[in-house]
Structure formats: structure tokens, C-alpha cells
Design brief:
The chain has no helices and 39 strands. The chain has 480 residues and is mainly β. It folds into two domains: 281 residues, Glycosyl hydrolase domain, family 43 (Tachylectin-2, Chain A), CATH 2.115.10; 180 residues, Jelly Rolls, CATH 2.60.120.200. Strands 4-25-28-38-30-31-32-33 form an eight-stranded antiparallel β-sheet, with no helix packed on it. Strands 26, 27, 29, 34, 35, 36, 37 and 39 form an eight-stranded antiparallel β-sheet that branches. Strands 1, 19, 20, 21, 22 and 23 form a six-stranded mixed β-sheet that branches. Strand 2 and strand 3 form a beta hairpin. The radius of gyration is 23 Å and the shape is globular.
């Protein structure tokens, strides 16, 4: 009973249901495609990648990195529900200012997409007595009844503010998760303590949707993991008992889920004092790949890819079609999540078809990145380590070129590189392979979780041109 499970990977905004003998968790995927990743578990400790909900959204110029970008935007805070034989996934898209609804009889798909008129921040969905409601918002938490075809608010239906956290100088209530249990309506949310930043989980209860929601904070605890609080999530009941599934801000590795057991007493969750924490085991959410005839499911492209520029044939082949200011604007960057507390990745880059000024390599990819790879210039090929330390506000994506930390001339057009991430220090260190083994290139680089990307550090494979487009890189033998 008194056992919590901690994920050491960026899996933010979890929403979980239990169905057919398994727990299913959906997470925010923002600017990565395919999106709407769903994980599955039989026991809450062992989780595996299960499916994605969508391949792309609207293919706008910003979603495809043709003109602009959607870093820190895209798909936020999804809700996952099962009702009358149908699975429902809904979420808002911050770049489109829209709300999407997906329906399927199978979590593997296919999914049918529609839209709910309006924008509903951190929405939750409730099916109740033949009607469907959304709960959403920040600081002012709204309850809105939907029409019968779920395309917008119901005319004359319930539409009211049910909880108000006005005056909170840090983070007002958001991250809604609503449930009907034994005839009462339970609403779980996050906000911050008012005197300092710290995640706290709150719960409000009402006897009816027209009635008053009453409650307050129910979980202000970090379980000894990290002093930042644990919050933002909902509850799930299954064979393992009742659990509250939230996440914790954890530095450069991202926002890490924590599964916390509880018991109901007098209509309230009660948490034991002697909860022990174990690491969750994750399967198929990161790993090695030879790219022989495709790629493993744990890879996601940064922004929607242009598959006319990509080929998987005994390697990941990527060709450029534009000149980029920096790594962030490189189309078809292939990424996967890092795993804390320490991890490293190795890949071989064939740069024989690069143009002068091209760069191709591996990075610890977030706003403050560390990149190591191969570049071609008039005098031949060289290894290069680039980094970025953002100087603007926490939301501001830099458009500056990366800082060149070190350049090393190499023989030949192929290079094996390594990036090692230590999230105890929030640092990434880059290496190149020489005749006598790996040697460090550049200095260890500080990683930071910033809101320009709003995601944990990922390993990323990128090729970009700084002089003229048309160069091609081939990535082989990727190993974690």
C-alpha cells in the first residue's frame, strides 16, 4: 500500500485511466511528432510505450519549421477518458488557439479527430447522466456543458466559474482533473504556495454541478525526492488500490511523474506518513536503434517532419532544404527522451555528402543545448562542439548562432560522437571518438529547463546548413 513510484523521465501532465486490466497514461508532447503518447502498465511500476494519438496536427508553416516555430506550444495537458465503448482524448493547442477531440474504439487507433469550439486550458472531461462537461482554466476554474455532438458549449447549458484562486502571486489553480465518485464531484488541481514557488495539490468537492465546490490543499510533500513539491494530476482506481498520479519539476531532465498511494476516509484522500519511493521501470520509451528499415517507436521528430527529406536505409538519412540560423530551426531533427539520473548516447555520423557550412551531430536538446558533430569547410572535415546559454527571458527562444566551444580537424568524413548527461549536476559533456577511445571536446555545459522549449532535455540527431541547402548526413548505430 505505502509504495510510491517515481519516473525518471520527462512525462509531464499525466492523465491515467484503468481499463481492461491495464493502466493507461497519456502525456503532453508539445512540439514533438507523432504526438499524444500513451504508456501502459499492469502494476503502476512497469510501464511501456503503447501508442500515439496523432501523426500531425495542422501542418502550418510554424508546425513544420518552414516559417516560425511552435516551441513550448503545440499539444498541452491532454485528458484521457473511456465511455460507452469509446476512448476520448482532448487537449488544447497553444499555437492554434484550438481544442481538439479524438475518438477511437481502440487505443492503438485509428483516431477520429474533431474540434470543440473554444480554447480550454488544462481541460478535464466528465461524462455524467448523458451529458458531457469540460472543466478548465487558470486561477478561475470554469465548468462548461458541451452540446450533444461535442463541438462546442451547449446552448443554455451550465457555464460557470466553480473555483477561484485570485490573488495567488505565483501560480493560480490549474491542471484540472474531475471525477464523479459515489454521487459527488471531485476536482483535483495544482497551484503554488503563495509565499514561495512550490507545487501543491488541491481538491475541491461538490454535491452537484450546480452546487458549491469546497476544499483546499491535500498534498504538500516532495516524498524526499526533490524540494519542489509534487502536484498536477488526477486519481485512478485499479487492482493496486487508489493512487494520485502527479509530477515534479526536476530541473533539466524535465517534469517527472510520481504515483502516490492513498486511502479514502470520510470522502477525502489520506496519505500515509511512511510512503517509500521506488523507481518506475520504463520499456520502449528510449533506447538504441540501427535505423535499418525505419525507426523505433520511441523516436519523435522535433516539429512535424518533411518525409521527402528523410530516408531510413541502413541509417537515418536527412537532407537539408534551407539555411538555418541555429540548431532550433533544423527540420527533421529526430529526438528521444533522456533518462535520469545519468545517461549517455553514442552515434556515428557519415558526413560524406555534406556541403560546406553544414553541421550534423548529436545534442542534449533543449533551450540551453550542447551539440557535438561533424562539419565540412573548405579545408575538409572537422569535429565541432557547440553550445547555447540563453540570455533572454525564460520564454524567449534564442535566434543567435551557437557558441563554438572547440573545433578539431579530423581525417575522413565519418565521426562517432557521444553526449553524456548528468542530471545530478544538470550538465552535458560531449566526446569524439579517436584512435585510442573517446576524448572530451569542449567543456561540460550547463543544461536548464526553460519555458522556451518547456520540455526536458532530449537526445537529438540533427543536420543543418549555414551556407547553402542540399547536404545530407547519415546517422548510424545509435546506442544508449
Amino acid at each position: 500500500m505505502n509504495k510510491a513510484f517515481h519516473f525518471n523521465m520527462d512525462i509531464p501532465d499525466p492523465d491515467v485511466i484503468f481499463h481492461g486490466g491495464f493502466y493507461y497514461l497519456i502525456t503532453t508532447t508539445m512540439h514533438f511528432f507523432p504526438g499524444g503518447e500513451i504508456l501502459r502498465s499492469a502494476d503502476l511500476k512497469h510501464w511501456e510505450h503503447y501508442s500515439y494519438v496523432f501523426e500531425k496536427l495542422e501542418s502550418t508553416p510554424s508546425q513544420t519549421l518552414e516559417d516560425g516555430y511552435i516551441y513550448g506550444k503545440g499539444m498541452w495537458a491532454p485528458v484521457l477518458r473511456f465511455h460507452d465503448g469509446i476512448f476520448y482524448v482532448a487537449f488544447s493547442s497553444n499555437d492554434m488557439n484550438k481544442t481538439y477531440l479524438y475518438r477511437s474504439e481502440d487505443l492503438k487507433g485509428p483516431w477520429k479527430r474533431s474540434e470543440i469550439k473554444g480554447f480550454y486550458h488544462d481541460l478535464s472531461m466528465l461524462f455524467d447522466d448523458g451529458k458531457v462537461y469540460l472543466v478548465y482554466g487558470n486561477t478561475d476554474i470554469h465548468l462548461t456543458e458541451l452540446n450533444d455532438d461535442l463541438t462546442g458549449p451547449a446552448e443554455g447549458g451550465i457555464d460557470r466559474v466553480i473555483v477561484d484562486d485570485s490573488g495567488n502571486p505565483r501560480l493560480g489553480l490549474e491542471g484540472s482533473h474531475i471525477y464523479k465518485i459515489d454521487g459527488k464531484y471531485y476536482l483535483f488541481m495544482i497551484h503554488s504556495l503563495r509565499d514561495r514557488w512550490r507545487r501543491v495539490e488541491a481538491m475541491y468537492v461538490a454535491d452537484s454541478l450546480e452546487g458549491e465546490f469546497v476544499g483546499g490543499d491535500i498534498f504538500d510533500n516532495d516524498l524526499g525526492i526533490r524540494d519542489s513539491g509534487i502536484a498536477q494530476g488526477g486519481i485512478v482506481k485499479g487492482p493496486m488500490g487508489d493512487h494520485l498520479i502527479m509530477f515534479q519539476d526536476s530541473g533539466a531532465v524535465g517534469r517527472l511523474p510520481v504515483v502516490v498511494p492513498f486511502e479514502w476516509q470520510d470522502g477525502k484522500p489520506v496519505f500515509e506518513d511512511d510512503i517509500t519511493v521506488e523507481e518506475a521501470e520504463l520499456k520502449g520509451v528510449c533506447g538504441s536503434d540501427d535505423f535499418e528499415n525505419g525507426h523505433e517507436d520511441f523516436w519523435q521528430f522535433n516539429h512535424e517532419p518533411d518525409m521527402s527529406l528523410v530516408k531510413f536505409d541502413n541509417g537515418f538519412h536527412v537532407t537539408t532544404d534551407k539555411v538555418c540560423r541555429n540548431l532550433f530551426f533544423a527540420k527533421n531533427t529526430l529526438t528521444q527522451k533522456t533518462l535520469g539520473p545519468v545517461c549517455e548516447a553514442v552515434v556515428t555520423v557519415d558526413g560524406s555528402a555534406l556541403n560546406d557550412g553544414d553541421l550534423a551531430g548529436l545534442s542534449a536538446f533543449q533551450g540551453d543545448y550542447a551539440f557535438v558533430g561533424i562539419t565540412k569547410g573548405p579545408e575538409g572535415f572537422a569535429a565541432v562542439m557547440l553550445s547555447n546559454t540563453s540570455k533572454g527571458g525564460i520564454w524567449d527562444l534564442t535566434e543567435e548562432e551557437g557558441d563554438v566551444e572547440e573545433v578539431v580537424k579530423i581525417d575522413g568524413s565519418s565521426l562517432t560522437v557521444k553526449v553524456a548527461c548528468d542530471f545530478n549536476k544538470d550538465q552535458a559533456t560531449c566526446f569524439i571518438k579517436c584512435a585510442d577511445g573517446f576524448r572530451q571536446i569542449g567543456m561540460p555545459h550547463d543544461l536548464r529547463f526553460r519555458l522556451d522549449h518547456f520540455t526536458g532535455a532530449r537526445f537529438a540527431l540533427s543536420c543543418f546548413s549555414t551556407v547553402r541547402p542540399g547536404g545530407t548526413a547519415v546517422f548510424k548505430n545509435f546506442r544508449i
